[in-house]
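Protocol step 4 of 6: structure prediction from sequence.
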Amino acid sequence: MARDPEIVSKNMKKIRSKDTSIELQLRKALWHKGYRYRKNYRALPGSPDIVLTKYKIAIFCDSEFFHGKDWEVLKVRLETGHNPEYWIKKIERNRSRDWENDKKLLCLGYTVIHFWGRDILKRTDECIQVIEEAIWDDKLTSLPGDDFL
């Protein structure tokens, strides 16, 4: 089925890279819990969506399509769709870039957390719990006199 290029273009222009609904929901929940953060922090590789600088935690809010959730299944679906070469190349590049940025952040001592959009929308509390566990891990590893552990 052919799609009108003007409609496709109009829809693609609506896709945001910052302040998406999933980011806003997670940020609101973090703020409500008393956590302060930087958003789209360009000083770090990949400009993480949310950074808890105090705890060195970088958080990415990834959409399932553009970051290739269940990639093997999605790739097969894309192969039968419209313009498969473009979409497969684009998503594979996104996944590769995510991996490279994660490695750079880890080398800088950051804890890297990725959440899928639907998980944020449907299970925000669980996402917050994952972040809080990372905060506690950071606090436990940075205790003074922890040589005996």
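Step 5 (inspection) to follow. The longest helix spans residues 84-107.
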